[in-house]
Input
Amino acid sequence: MKKMMRPMLMAGAVLGMASGLSACVASFDPQTDASSPLAPRVQAMVDAHRTYPRWEDFPRSSEPVPPPAQVAQQVNTLRATGGALANEVSTLQWTNGDPAALEREVAARVSAVPVSPDAARTAAELDAYAQALRDRAKAPPPIGRTPAPPPQPQTAPQ
Output
């Protein structure tokens, strides 16, 4: 029984995959709507670009291909200049070793620049200013939409 089930399961799996893949084929071969006024132009463009260009269709380079010895020389030159650049970089003195010192240096440079008195506000002043802007931006209360009650007839005092 088990021996008979395995081929049946394989056949079912292959059949399922084939039917799944056949559903995708239609999306790769779209048909142009013949009733469209642009249909002839669209079909002509599709037909013109249906084949891939061949290597022979590309224009030839006007420059000759360099000989292998010249390519090898250029590769060696690049390797040498790359090594020289790596040596130069290794001799650089990096200044980012002490972050606390960098912080002090930046803070000193920032504090050396004069600040406008209008821009120098405390946190409390900024909070008050922001609250004033929020209060100013509040919408007015809605207008009542209910009709006014009819006036009551006044009775004469007795």
About this structure: The mean pLDDT is 82. DSSP finds five helices and no strands in the chain. The radius of gyration is 42 Å. The CA atoms of residues 88 and 145 lie 80 Å apart.
